[in-house]
Design a protein that fits this description.
The complex is a heterodimer.
Chain A lengths: L8 H4 L4 H10 L5 H14 L9 H16 L2 H4 L4 H7 L2 H11 L8 H8 L3 E3 L8 H9 L7
Chain B lengths: L7 H8 L21 E2 L2 H16 L2 H7 L4 E6 L4 E5 L1 E4 L5 E4 L10 E4 L1 H4 L5 E10 L6 E5 L13 H12 L6 E3 L11
Parallel strand pairs in B: 8-9
Antiparallel strand pairs in B: 1-3, 2-3, 2-7, 4-5, 4-6, 7-8
Helix pairs in contact in B: 2-3
Classes of the chains: A mainly alpha, B alpha+beta.
Chain lengths: 146, 188
């Protein structure tokens, strides 16, 4: 029997697609949401900047926030946005909320369907051809419809 | 037909609008990564060998590229560029070491992130190529994890899929992992 997945602080900072799938499953387990919350708050506590976040830190925090959204974390976390505001610095809270608020709606119904399913999207190399074909398909409106 | 012969509107449709990076570190406009390649038949053949080696099970490749991503970005003309994220010493401009994912950059050093791949200019979608050891089965992923190009408002899963098709055109198979971009609203 395999050990239950637990998210480390180190791993949170370097999430891979497989980690996001594992977090998604972890959130379904008893105590899983709280576990991820604790790791996320530890990450915030470990940010090196004592006052304003550096630009690189803001980038990383934004990416982690968005990756956790792909795992479904923000839909499940008991830390509603107001509570998160209470336990984090204003500059940190601002970055998290800036990443999550008013996310653009995907352009097409196909995008919505794709993004609401698994985060995985398999490209079948047999179904695509060359760069020239991509360009040609674009001209004919078959690809990249926004 | 070459992607660079397409109009800006067509390229925007394929790979997203060409946007200036919101932030540019000091050396990113000045220096070009030593490991930089333009995706063409030659570089793609070498990249494919690297990818195949990892997929076939060589641990020394798998366990490097699971934590040392290859950065990629599509420039305004529709050309895909890729390199590792290089750390350079500011004083000497010498390449020091490749940056592991999200690791701290020491004082006196700077990383050459995505903008450095295209001279700090406007770019379309970008992100990382990495080998995910823990995926079932382990495989190469192409993501849009670039705060300055790939996670900008307006980027879509289709843009990323179209970028993956550039690789597929050279026989390089990847799975894509799309991270929905950040919002456009002001944080309160």
């Amino acid at each position: 029997m395999s050990e239950p997945y637990r998210l480390s602080l180190e791993r949170l900072q370097r999430l891979r697609p497989s980690d996001i799938a594992k977090i998604r499953a972890l959130l379904e387990e008893s105590g899983g949401v709280e576990h991820v919350e604790r790791v996320f708050l530890r990450y915030l506590d470990h940010l090196p900047s004592l006052s304003d976040l550096s630009a690189a830190e803001r980038d990383d925090l934004t990416c982690i926030t968005l990756q956790l959204r792909e795992a479904g974390f923000w839909d499940r976390a008991f830390l509603p946005q107001g509570d998160l505001r209470e336990v984090t610095r204003p500059d940190v809270w601002s970055v998290v909320m800036g990443a999550l608020r008013d996310a653009p709606v995907p352009a097409t119904e196909a995008d919505v369907a794709e993004e609401s399913r698994s985060p995985y999207c398999v490209i079948n190399v047999d179904d695509v051809a060359t760069e020239a074909d991509v360009a040609e398909e674009s001209r004919s409106g078959r690809l990249g419809a926004a | 037909m070459d992607a660079t012969s397409l109009s800006d509107a067509e390229l925007s449709n394929l790979y997203g609008a060409a946007l200036h990076p919101e932030r540019l570190d000091a050396l990113e406009a000045e220096m070009t990564p030593r490991s930089l390649h333009k995706l063409d038949s030659f570089s793609a053949s070498l990249l494919k060998e690297l990818f195949d080696t990892a997929e076939q099970g060589l641990g020394t490749t798998r366990f490097v590229y699971c934590e040392l991503p290859i950065l990629w970005v599509i420039d305004a003309t529709g050309t895909l560029w890729f390199s590792i994220e290089e750390i350079v010493e500011i004083a000497t401009r010498e390449f020091s070491w490749p940056r592991l994912r999200r690791t701290f950059v020491a004082e006196g050093y700077e990383k050459l992130g995505h903008p450095a791949l295209i001279g700090g200019f406007e770019g379309r979608i970008g992100g990382e190529l990495l080998f995910d050891n823990e995926a079932d089965p382990p495989c190469w992923y192409m993501t849009n994890r670039s705060g300055r190009y790939g996670l900008r408002p307006g980027r879509t899963a289709q843009h990323l899929a179209n970028a993956a098709k550039l690789l597929a055109g050279y026989g390089i198979r990847v799975e894509i992992f799309f991270i929905r971009p950040k919002g456009t609203g002001e944080a309160p």
